[in-house]
Amino acid sequence: MAKRIKYKTGDIFSIEVSENSFIYGRILFDPNEQYLKKTPKEEQFSYLDGFGKCVLIETYKGVFSSLEEVDFSKVAIKSNFVRTDMLKREDVKLIGYEPVQPQGVSFPEVMSMYNSKYYFSVGELKIPVNITYEEYDEIHVYPTYGSGYWELVATLVWSDRKDLVEESDIKESYFIADDLRYSPEKRNKIYAMIGENPNQSYYELALKRGFDLARLYL
């Protein structure tokens, strides 16, 4: 039977990768508690609608024996959605808490289609993009979430710990079909289309369009 677990935004978790060795991560955003329960249904117009059973997480580079060794400035996974079931696994433990600063939170950047129109989608935003279906299909980066497995694998690879990864899972890149942030060339083209600076934060981009992420952290 899967264990029951209570979690909240800001919780720090560990995942055991070998005996007494762990990677660490943090819950950045809970779509169900922070968005779906706070936003009237008629005002929901983003990919967050489909992430009610997920949490947004980040992970940190390195494999350590204790949380005290972690350098939280060295982020491996920027922010990926994973199913909440990941937090129920026996190798996953909630071991600490660090409040999340909304101004620093980012979301996966993808393309979406609604009523035969195309959008650049990130967080609460759906920004219209004037492209053809062929261009949309060629970009091929759509909203998705995972079990946490590939987040674990990528964190280990990016931490130079390939010795803890199955050889068949070692790749040159990860998440390129899930997030434009891992495909800089495609990302820059989309930002040029919408007339925005790709170096600005999600918080700044959303605030321009009337969405203050901080309100969802109150």
3D architecture notes:
There is one protein chain. With 218 residues, the protein is α+β, with helices and mostly antiparallel strands. It has one domain (11-217). The chain is 19% helix and 22% strand. The protein contains five helices and eight strands, in the order E-E-H-E-E-E-E-E-E-H-H-H-H. The chain has a five-stranded antiparallel sheet with strand order 4-3-2-1-5. Strands 6-7-8 form a three-stranded antiparallel sheet, covered by helices on one side. The radius of gyration is 18 Å and the shape is globular. The model has no long low-confidence stretch (mean pLDDT 96).
Task: Write a brief caption for the model.
This protein has 218 residues and is an alpha+beta fold. It has helices at 31-36, 133-139, 149-158, 184-194, 202-208; strands at residues 11-18, 21-29, 54-59, 80-83, 92-97, 109-114, 117-122, 125-128.
Give the terminus-to-terminus CA distance.
34 Å
Spatial order of strands in the largest sheet: 4-3-2-1-5
Please tell me how large the radius of gyration is. Answer: 18 Å
Portion in strands:
15-25%
How many individual helices?
5
| Poorly predicted regions | none
Order of helices and strands: EEHEEEEEEHHHH
Cα shape: globular
User: What is the typical, i.e. mean, pLDDT?
Assistant: 96
Number of strands: 8
Main sheet, how many strands, which sense, barrel? 5 strands, antiparallel
Helix percent reads 10-25%
Which structural class do you get from the secondary structure elements?
alpha+beta
Number of domains: 1
